[in-house]
Amino acid sequence: MPTEARRVLKRVVACGLVTLAVSHFCVAADAPQTDKLKRLSLEELGNVEVTSVSKEPEEIWQTPAAVYVLTHDDIRRSGALTLPDLLRTVPGVEVAELEGNIWAVGIRGFNSPYSKDVLVLIDGRSVYTPLFEGVYWDAQDVLLDDIDRIEIIRGPGGSIWGANAVNGVINIITRHAKDTQGTLASGFSGYVDRFNGSVRKGLHSGDDFQYRLFAKGFVREDEQNPHYGAYDKWHLAHGGFRADWTPTPRDAVTAEADAYTGKSGQQVSYASYAPLAQLVVNDTFTISGGDVVLDWQHRYSGGSDFHGKAYFDRTNRQGMEFGETRSTVDLDFIDHLTMLPRQDFIWGAGVRLSPGNVIQNQASVDFEPHSQTDHVYSAFLQDAFRLLPQSLTLTLGSKFENNNYTGFEIEPNARLLWNPLPHAALWAAMSRAVRTPGRLDRDLQLTDVDVVSPPVLVRVQGDPTFKSEVMVAVEAGYRQLLFPKIYADIAAFRNDYENLESYGARTVSFITTPVSAEVLTIPYANGIKGTTDGLEIAPDWKPTSWWELKGNFSHVHIGVRPMPGYNDTTTVASYQGSSPHRTATLQSLLNLPHGGEFDFDYRFVSRLPAQNVERYQTMDSHASWLLGKSLRLSVSGRNLLEPHHHEFAGDNNLPTGIRRSVYGGITLTR
Amino acid sequence: MRALLQPEPAIPLWTRRAITCCGLLLLSCLSPLCQSQDKAAFTPYDVEAAYLYNFGKFIQWPSTTDANSPPFSICILGQDNLGNKLDDIVAGETIQGRRIVASHVSSVEAADQCQIVFIGRSEDARLGKDLEVLGKKPVLTVSSVPGFLERGGIIQFVIQNNKVRFAVNLPAARQAGLALSSELLKVAVSVTTNPPQEDKQ
């Protein structure tokens, strides 16, 4: 472990001990309360209203990784309408909106549009695309009230989730159909978010079969694009169902399906050969898709369980530059065995086949071959050894994968967890994770016109031998619940990267078709290495039953350099200057009488020199009232502190202004 | 561009932040937190702890032959938020003339001297094993882990409309040699009377 990390760890331990000592003073004040409770009869106890105070699930004490959970209530009270906006208050997560429908969502550095180092799953279905190596956030939509929780794992998750879970994993988990019985109708309308409406009906047949049907649609207006006019409108229609069946107390079967269609406006720039020109056009992507997920869990009597999952996913994206259709079939199972003394053994295997077809719309943008089937065959083993019963656990595990780009990949990890107290956990981990290449790194040929006369073209060329980016991470963290009122979570990490994507040596050549021109070819290469180190602190304080304060402070330092034989300082500067070195948020959640809520959050993001973005601070707010039993009215405002601000430039050198938005909403549940 | 490539001095910043963190947490704990708590704010753990204390009054254990009358022991196996609450509830209390002690036990083997064992959520994976050992002893097993009764537990807490209730597995109680009073069964949301069907792996 590097000395910096060790020093930080010492502080962390000291910090935990100090707060623990103080917390003993708080117990005494509690006593009169519980005293009353124990005088109640069994019947009276059954009528005491309870509130859920600690949002942290019990598993958090058994998790030797940096995890954060957004609960159903957190999601509703954030007032956010899009998935990336929900993630803005999560420690270690960098969310930047490039345009009205493009987001960069990074974890612990290396932020980029489409988030290539972060694996995103919706009910276990990967939404990471092998074409663009990332997530098309404009095609990801969930009825937000259907979300049970979002679990965000900072740091590598490769040993469980496999390739591309390098800097983190975002797990979106929807609610059981029994929790969404009845009718829901909601509508939001305002400035920027013009309309966002959902209807849902939850039904059941007997006690062991529940299902829900939903439909959702939204229209989002343009952000502030002063130099190019308005082009980033976004709208989507989405519908589907989820059914849960419990045939026996030991079995749970879930079937889900949904389909969506929409349009997302984006500005694209591409070369035209006749006449020779570099065009900048306002394009509208047509996006559609759907998926079917089947999931079966069986619990054996001895505490062991089995979990099998199968899904089919179809995506379709058509734009002026190119289009892509892709179908993915994925089969997975995990078997969890508890018969060995003091051990918890999990193993699993999976196969994923993903045929994709690129539709070439411009001669200057191509992926060769157009059709290709990607595959991943994987196996995974993990054993947790209880070195000391209840308090010290060592977990060793690895994923073994075979993919069509780089062949065999191994992603092992070792994690140590110590529970000095029932609600305190100190953990440390060392892991290896990989980002496997996709079609972009290997097969892209993108030609731009640099000079029209005499013609000079610049061509970005995929590298057919592009290797996996490799990361080795050392992490440690401490979390403690200081009675139900204060929860603190601290994590520190140092990640070492090799073979990061960069540009290789340029070559100059002359071509005669399709135009006579000088061509400057810039290939992709695995030419950068380096380290990131950082720290996240996330305290949660509930001073009274009606007020909660949550904060987080995240720091990341990125130090990368060209590997021997390479000299791409531009990409080095981009890696170092595209993630905020410091972010901080403070959230206040206030419960008012008669079901009222008033919440706000303040966010600070430090500057991104490589994206022409200055540091900014802003505020979101959400207020709602309950009318009767079934009607809730709400008003939400986002980015309230300024008319608009910049978050990320991306390919355009001029970042889009992300506007202040205000919207009102009405939600009916019965 | 050169300035960008200069690594920042990371350690002093971390150190400063770590100290700030300690300071903030310390301050926040010394502030009004310790004095005030809202009247209506019971958590499920408060109520569950109160139930655990109450159950003792409605259950007959096989009579102990120990003349010294050892303390009545409520044990927590595994980890659960309830553990913190129980200490306050049982402090200075007695059941059937016996002093109550609440304790954490580290393994199921250490739990056989307990009259009531509350099994925390962290034990979910080992539940089958735990219950196999405890099920044959005169021990009241209680948990809020889903599916607890199907796996052979005796009392399971369930939350209904923001209220903590409990369900009872009567055959499992009989197997443990415990006699549950009718008052307890009357208040339970459900009482299982058929032995659970087993399947083996």
Descriptive overview:
The complex is a heterodimer of chains A (670) and B (201). By secondary structure, chain A is mainly beta. Chain A has a single domain (51-669), classed as TonB-dependent receptor, beta-barrel domain (Maltoporin, Chain A), CATH 2.40.170.20. Helix content of chain A is 10%, strand content 59%. Chain A has a 22-stranded antiparallel β-barrel. A 5-stranded mixed sheet of chain A has the order 1-8-9-4-5. Chain A has a two-stranded antiparallel sheet with strand order 2-3. In chain A, a hairpin with a 3-residue loop joins strand 16 (305-318) and strand 17 (322-337). The model of chain A is unreliable at 1-32 and 52-56 (pLDDT under 50). Chain B is of the alpha/beta class and 201 residues long. Chain B has 2 domains: 7-34; 44-192, Rossmann fold. Chain B contains 7 helices and 10 strands. In chain B, the strands form 2 sheets. In chain B, strands 3-4-2-5-6-7-8-10 form an 8-stranded mixed sheet, with helices on both faces. In chain B, helix 3 packs across helix 4. The longest helix of chain B is centred in the N-terminal third of the chain and has 21 residues, at 10-30. At the A-B interface, helix 1, helix 2, strand 27, strand 29 and strand 30 of A face helix 2, helix 3, helix 4, helix 5 and strand 8 of B.
What are the key terms here?
heterodimer; A: 670 residues; mainly beta; Maltoporin, Chain A; 22-stranded antiparallel beta barrel; 5-stranded mixed beta sheet; globular; disordered N terminus; B: 201 residues; alpha/beta; Rossmann fold; 2 domains; 8-stranded mixed beta sheet; two-stranded antiparallel ribbon
